[in-house]
Each structure stands twice: as C-alpha cells, then as structure tokens.
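// run 5 | inverse folding | seed 20
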C-alpha cells in the first residue's frame, strides 16, 4: 500500500479510535526511507548512506534521551541544513506528535 494510502488509513483509525496506537514495523519504515532517499528529486541521493544512518539512529534509539539526541544530531547536520525537502518530509511524515510508535521485531 502506498505511504499516502497508509497515512490516510492511520488517520482514519486514529479518528475512529482516539486511544489507538499505530505501529510501523522496521521493514516498512526502512522500505519507505530507502525509496524516498533514492529519488534524485529529493536531493539526498549523494549522501544517502550518511542520511540513512542518522535516520536509523532516530528509529533505533532505545531511550527517550537517545531519541532526542539522535533527532538533534540529524537536525544539526549539514544534510538537514541543505535540504528543505528532507526537513519537511521527516518533520511532517515521521515525527508528528509522537502518535506513531516504531517497533523492532
């Protein structure tokens, strides 16, 4: 299912069941990130490996402190500073309101 369809489905579930928790597995999160970073129009394909490492550090953070640190590291990076598309995509799709919880299997 395309991400936009998934987002609509997640939003619908959250509206219908206000107390629901939505989980996105590692596989689908990684698949989305790989696809997004591979598209040259986003301007990160030349630094893809470095960016993916930072994104994975955010996703794999074992504590809130580590999570906050990983997000700050990403936001202070040169990649982040140079790429408005990355800032918008990651801030709007992956960090909204902490309602979506990633989990590791």
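// decoded
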């Amino acid at each position: 299912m395309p991400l936009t369809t998934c987002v609509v489905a997640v939003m619908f579930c959250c509206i219908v069941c206000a107390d629901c928790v939505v989980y996105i597995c590692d596989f689908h999160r990684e698949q989305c990130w790989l696809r997004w970073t591979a598209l040259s129009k986003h301007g990160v394909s030349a630094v893809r490996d470095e960016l993916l490492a930072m994104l994975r550090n955010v996703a794999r953070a074992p504590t809130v402190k580590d999570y906050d640190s990983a997000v700050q590291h990403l936001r202070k990076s040169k990649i982040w500073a140079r790429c408005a598309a990355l800032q918008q995509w990651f801030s709007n799709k992956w960090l909204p309101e902490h309602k979506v919880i990633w989990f590791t299997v």
